[in-house]
Amino acid sequence: MENEKEIINRVAMSGLVQLDMADFFPNEEIIEYDIAQNLWQGIALKEKDFRDFIVANDWSMYSNKHVALTCSADAIIPSWAYMLLSAALQPYAITISFGTKSEVEQILLISNINKIIASNYQDTRVVIKGCSDSVVSEGAWVAITYKLQPVVKSLMFGEPCSTVPIFKKK
Description:
Number of helices: 5
Helix content: 25-40%
Structural class: alpha/beta
Order of helices and strands: HEEHEHEHEHEE
Strand content: 15-25%
Radius of gyration: 23 Å
Strand order of the largest sheet: 1-5-6-7
Low-confidence stretches: none
Number of strands: 7
């Protein structure tokens, strides 16, 4: 066994820090509330009926969840309707945002990216993992670049064995 060479993991020894965008997705469930279910004849919202619904509904099912408020119908929804929903949900929900479930997921992803303590990456070589099981919006790629570029030595996209250079400090 004299001819056997020790296998060296050059990626591990390179000092690269790999960040996986999947780590920034919210862990809690996101529930979408579609106000279309409250429309009269599918076209309008009656204030009295809606207020009665708000008071009578059990909002506790939204406890410890992110709530996405949306309307799938082609209807004009007054702003106060979303405000009433938000007021009813506030004691229960972790967050309340306007948009579809997937839009709110991206809002929360970007919010979590913005919570990164950039100084933890001071003068490091960072690879942002390019493959993910979840859809990452362009906005999230922009947010992580904006957050890390001022402090990192270099920023790359992809996998440590095959990266696309994004930024290198001069």
